[in-house]
């Protein structure tokens, strides 16, 4: 378990370089996952509708 | 020290430190090697099922099934961290190694479980989503939380969870549960015990140290060898069965006979060679070949469909 660094009243919790690097990597992964999810919902919506869009009553 | 400072110090001590988990640790929670087996078996159903989903929707549905399987792996690692910590094979997994906290693994597994089931329901149908939810529940609650620490039949009954992906995929593609997918489920179900027990014969000490009642510990290696042989004999006809329910063609039948006989030969060797390095080598050989056996069968089913080799028989009518 990682140790919590001593608090500095002004700086708060100070992360090490390694902790910062891993947090950034996790954030990037979450961003990529969210983007993929958006694309998936878009694709599923389009392909579920299929030709019904053209066939709907106008 | 003022009371506020004291309270803050206590709160800091109670909190886990900043997470050291890397992206690769979360990927490891998904058990990628198990996931690859799930992908190949589910893909077979998508390729072999009649009519079916649009290829893009099928790809999304396949992703949902793979993520659902990965989610159950993450929940398994969350619950089994105490066992994993004392087994050499699993001690370096993210949770027992301390890189991922149990809370992170639980949240990750639950999020992916719920997300994959809902997404599969929206993409394909709710029968498939229900079957995926059942599979995750069976693996996490019935196998991991209950059977694994209670009975030497743990991997026999629990193996159903690993066998379900072809049926989930078939339901996603067709909206129903066909005899074809039931045969594929039965094939993986019967394959799991000899596959896993061969590993147990090599890693028996690990399971004994962890207190997991594997058959090698409760009934001994000799009885395990007998059970491996019995299940291998039962597996042989199931290996060729897809050729008689409208799934496999002549190439599949030929491959199934060859790899089925080799599986049986190796199981007999495990049964007969019981002492020393030769026994370990025989068990290791069966374990390694069992992976080739299963992958070969499903690869050939896919390949036959892709190159247009017709199945030996038509679909069995009037079944569900």
TrEMBL record, chain B:
Family the entry assigns: Belongs to the UbiA prenyltransferase family. Protoheme IX farnesyltransferase subfamily.
Matches recorded under InterPro entries: Protohaem_IX_farnesylTrfase (IPR006369), UbiA_prenyltransferase (IPR000537), UbiA_prenylTrfase_CS (IPR030470), UbiA_sf (IPR044878)
Keywords tagged on the record: Cell membrane, Heme biosynthesis, Membrane, Transferase, Transmembrane, Transmembrane helix
Family annotation (Gene3D superfamilies): UbiA prenyltransferase
Transmembrane segments: 34-53, 59-79, 100-120, 126-146, 167-191, 228-261, 282-303
Miscellaneous comment in the UniProt entry for this protein: Carbon 2 of the heme B porphyrin ring is defined according to the Fischer nomenclature.
GO molecular function: protoheme IX farnesyltransferase activity
EC number, as in UniProt: 2.5.1.141
Chief subcellular location: membrane
Protein name, UniProt field: Protoheme IX farnesyltransferase
Catalytic activity annotation: heme b + (2E,6E)-farnesyl diphosphate + H2O = Fe(II)-heme o + diphosphate
Keyword Membrane attributed: yes
Any Pfam family hit: UbiA
GO BP, sorted A to Z: heme O biosynthetic process
Role of this protein: Converts heme B (protoheme IX) to heme O by substitution of the vinyl group on carbon 2 of heme B porphyrin ring with a hydroxyethyl farnesyl side group.
GO CC annotation: plasma membrane
UniProt subcellular location: Cell membrane
Membrane topology recorded in Swiss-Prot or TrEMBL: Multi-pass membrane protein
């Amino acid at each position: 378990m990682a140790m919590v660094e001593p608090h500095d009243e002004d700086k708060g919790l100070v992360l090490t370089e390694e902790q910062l690097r891993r947090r950034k990597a996790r954030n990037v992964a979450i961003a990529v996952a969210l983007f993929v999810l958006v694309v998936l919902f878009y694709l599923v919506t389009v392909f579920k509708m299929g030709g019904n869009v053209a066939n709907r009553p106008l | 020290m003022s009371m506020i400072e004291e309270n803050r110090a206590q709160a800091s001590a109670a909190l886990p430190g900043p997470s050291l988990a890397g992206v690769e640790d979360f990927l490891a929670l998904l058990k990628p090697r198990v996931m690859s087996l799930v992908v190949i078996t589910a893909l077979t159903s998508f390729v072999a099922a009649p009519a079916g989903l649009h290829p893009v929707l099928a790809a999304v549905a396949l992703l949902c099934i793979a993520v659902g399987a990965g989610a159950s792996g993450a929940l398994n690692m969350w619950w089994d961290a105490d066992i994993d910590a004392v087994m050499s094979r699993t001690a370096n997994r993210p949770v027992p190694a301390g890189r991922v906290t149990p809370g992170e693994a639980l949240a990750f597994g639950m999020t992916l479980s719920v997300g994959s089931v809902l997404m599969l329901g929206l993409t394909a149908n709710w029968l498939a989503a229900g079957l995926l939810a059942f599979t995750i529940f069976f693996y996490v609650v019935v196998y991991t939380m209950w059977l694994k620490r209670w009975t030497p039949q743990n991997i026999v009954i629990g193996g159903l969870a690993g066998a379900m992906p072809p049926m989930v995929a078939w339901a996603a593609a067709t909206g129903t549960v066909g005899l074809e997918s039931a045969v594929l489920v039965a094939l993986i179900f019967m394959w799991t015990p000899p596959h896993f027990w061969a590993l147990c014969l090599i890693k028996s000490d690990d399971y004994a140290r962890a207190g997991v009642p594997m058959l090698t510990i409760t009934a001994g290696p000799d009885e395990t060898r007998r059970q491996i042989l019995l299940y291998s004999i039962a597996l042989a006809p199931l290996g060729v069965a897809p050729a008689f329910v409208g799934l496999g063609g002549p190439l599949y039948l030929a491959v199934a006979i060859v790899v089925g006989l080799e599986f049986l030969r190796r199981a007999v060797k495990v049964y007969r060679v019981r002492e020393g390095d030769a026994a370990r080598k025989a068990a290791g050989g069966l374990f390694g070949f069992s992976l080739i056996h299963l992958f070969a069968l499903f690869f050939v089913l896919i390949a036959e469909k892709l190159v247009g080799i017709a199945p030996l028989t038509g679909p069995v009518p009037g079944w569900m």
